[in-house]
Amino acid sequence: MNKRSGRHWLLLRGLSREAGHWGEFLPLLQAQFPQDRIYTLDLPGTGRRHQETSPDTINAIMESVRQQALTEELLNQPLTIIGLSLGGMVAWEWSLRYPQDICAAALINSSMASLSPFYQRLRWQSYPNFFKIMMQNSDFSRELAIIRCVANRRDRDREIAMQWAEIQAERPVKLCNTVRQLKAAARYRPGKNKPDMPLILLSGRGDRLVAPTCSVAIQTEWQLQLKSHPWAGHDLTLDDSDWVVKHLKDWVEQLSMPPEIT
């Protein structure tokens, strides 16, 4: 990708989600980059770390994830991070604090409190859905409600809800950790500096959870590249993994091109 890249990818999911929720996106990404190494890590309080208590700041979540990356020896070469939503905030903070760790980053449907108001970062239209989700009395019903909130495709809802219900049954996310992650995201204000590395924003124009204008605000503030999907929702990799992989491939090829001589 660039001269520092080791072609090592690290994927970070968002609020109350874990590595298992990447689904078909992982093998598609690996197929597109067969020589690359692709890793996933869970945020504290989710996945393999579901019994831990999540910090309630993005910086502390990032430090915890980075320590896990160090422990698993993932930082021997600079990483290209893909962060979805809350994972994007963690990726941005990591890139600011430890630029030697990261050679590039892709942020999917992310947002920042310093750039967008709370009613755009969590759209007011989605508030009733949260109450409906909390009222569900089974993992399947709850995950089905989540899917119908974060994705716009309807052809695989029940199939994916069954998979996600199994994840929740095996590695349940505690409500207190969801609340702590929400608190961290709501207060995230990274300041005026931009990470000194290639960055790309991917956004779904059909996002009913976080307004697409939040990605536009990040693009405008720092003059970043933004690719917008015409209809996908918040979980862009669930709605259209092929589209995400294609744009990541185009981005990688663009970064691999020698700079123009002027």
UniProtKB/TrEMBL annotation:
It comes from the Bacteria. Pfam families: Abhydrolase_6. Keywords: Hydrolase. The keyword Hydrolase applies. Gene3D superfamilies: alpha/beta hydrolase. SUPFAM superfamilies: alpha/beta-Hydrolases. The keyword Cytoplasm does not apply. Residues 10-245 form the AB hydrolase-1 domain. InterPro entries: AB_hydrolase_1 (IPR000073), AB_hydrolase_fold (IPR029058), AB_hydrolase_sf (IPR050266). GO terms for molecular function: hydrolase activity. This is Alpha/beta hydrolase fold protein. It comes from Methylomonas methanica (strain DSM 25384 / MC09).
